[in-house]
Design brief:
This protein is of the alpha+beta class. It has 7 helices and 10 strands. Strands 1, 2, 3, 6, 7, 8, 9 and 10 form an 8-stranded mixed sheet that branches. It has a two-stranded antiparallel sheet with strand order 4-5. Strand 9 (about 170-175) and strand 10 (about 185-195) form a beta hairpin. The longest helix is centred in the N-terminal third of the chain and has 21 residues, at about 35-55. It is globular.
């Protein structure tokens, strides 16, 4: 067995990864001048990044119309609240973009995918724009789920739903068969945050986190 050693600034932990993109972006920009594309992207990225940061996430990269963000990688670590914040960020971005004309001209629709699992984090790169900040199959899973999300929806994997089930209301969707995955992936649509009694969050968070062993998450992805 090959032994893999981690660098001094790297650590292993769970995170929730969010991917968001614009529906029909390629066809849209083919009709635009590059200056118009730049203005659209600038406005779009500004909205997404503001919401992500406000929810405690880190923007890992911007690519074309796609944004990848990571939740639970900061000093406070990962837990049900971090995963729920990722889901809330996806819902809040779509709400912020609904009815908005980017660059004063362009209405857009988006789709969001989230996945939760174990990664290697490079602590020195845990900041906005920290390219290659994390490594793990959960990144690919989140990107794939985003591609299968219905327009204007936020979809999550089973591990994300499990850790946030008491904090977010979900609708179960049909499983999706993804190239490269041995089994279909369970899919859940995030609907809205759930209200909870003030005396319960800490106890619930602890019980949910304890009920999510790393071996279960590894099996999902």
């Amino acid at each position: 067995m090959t032994t893999i050693t981690m660098a001094d600034q790297e650590r292993r932990q769970d995170v929730t990864v969010l991917f968001i993109d614009i529906v029909g972006f390629t066809a849209m920009v083919d009709r635009l001048d590059c200056a118009e594309v730049r203005a659209l992207q600038r406005d779009y990225f500004s909205v997404v990044s503001e919401v992500v940061r406000g929810c405690g996430g880190i923007v890992e990269k911007y690519v074309g119309d796609a944004v990848m963000a990571v939740f639970g990688a900061g000093e406070d670590g990962f837990g049900p609240e971090a995963a729920a914040s990722a889901v809330k960020a996806g819902l809040s971005v779509q709400e912020a973009l609904r009815g908005r004309l980017l660059a004063g001209r362009f209405p857009v629709r988006t789709r969001v995918g989230l996945a939760t699992g174990e990664v290697i984090i490079e602590a020195a790169a845990a900041f906005d724009g920290g390219q290659a900040m994390i490594s793990g199959s959960v990144v690919n899973t989140a990107a794939r789920l985003q591609a299968y999300a219905p327009h204007d929806t936020v979809v999550v994997c089973s591990a994300t739903r499990e850790v946030t089930d008491v904090l977010i209301a979900y609708q179960e969707l049909p499983p999706v068969s993804v190239p490269g995955k041995a089994h279909p992936l369970d899919l859940y649509r995030a609907l809205q945050p759930q209200m909870m009694p003030r005396t319960m969050p800490v106890q619930v968070a602890r019980s949910v986190q304890q009920s999510m062993p790393r071996t279960v998450l590894a099996g999902v992805f």
